[in-house]
């Protein structure tokens, strides 16, 4: 994202080279590995985890604040501070390493997370 033309000039030169190296290294891996799929939380259509618009029902899918992948109904949680949605298992893993929400930067205890019982709250109606 930072290396997109609209942001590239705003990156501090001392970090620019390192970011470019990371982007180049990860670019090679992405071509070799097939991306995993998971169901759309609206219609259950299997789509790649990075897609945020379902090609079947055309709904915009909320993304996980810990990974950037789309959320799924059966593994959804939210930050207890800012209420942004996340994948429960990934947010747990993230908080064990970082101890703060990636969205609001507030300290969050992994034990405070729970699987959302009613995911419809985070799934706005059809677009």
TrEMBL record:
It is found in: Cytoplasm, Cytoskeleton, Cilium basal body. Keywords: Cell projection, Cilium, Cilium biogenesis/degradation, Cytoplasm, Cytoskeleton, Repeat, WD repeat. Pfam families: Zf_2nd_IFT121, Zf_IFT144_1st. InterPro entries: WDR19/dyf-2 (IPR040379), Znf_IFT121-like (IPR056170). Residues 62-108 form the IFT121-like zinc finger domain. PANTHER family: OSMOTIC AVOIDANCE ABNORMAL PROTEIN 1/WD REPEAT MEMBRANE PROTEIN, WD REPEAT DOMAIN 19. This is IFT121-like zinc finger domain-containing protein. It comes from Clavelina lepadiformis.
